[in-house]
Amino acid sequence: MRTLAAANPDHVVLAGDVLDWANTKTGQVRTLVLTVATLMAIIAVLMAWWKTRSFVGTLVAFVLAALVLWGISNLNVLKTKVGSEIDDTAASVSVVHGTGDAPALAGEGWRVS
What we know:
Blueprint: H1 15-52, H2 55-73, H3 75-92, E1 93-97, E2 103-107
Antiparallel strand pairs: 1-2
Helix pairs in contact: 1-2
């Protein structure tokens, strides 16, 4: 590890070194989380088999564990999809004042009579 108080006072430490370190640590944490989640999924499937001793219960536990692991490994895809759906819904809803005091919503999926 390099220290900031180097022998050469003209030595400049760039932020790239810190960013590289942060990116490396982020990748290591992501790998650790995925490894722990995989281990927990395997334990959950084995426990489901141990408790139920049935093929269907074990298969359901396996499918649910696979979905959770897919969600953890593809978090950016899920974040993008959820964000785009929220933005689309907010853009398609408008407020229309009805006969009462409360506003009525109009837009996709809403009917105002």
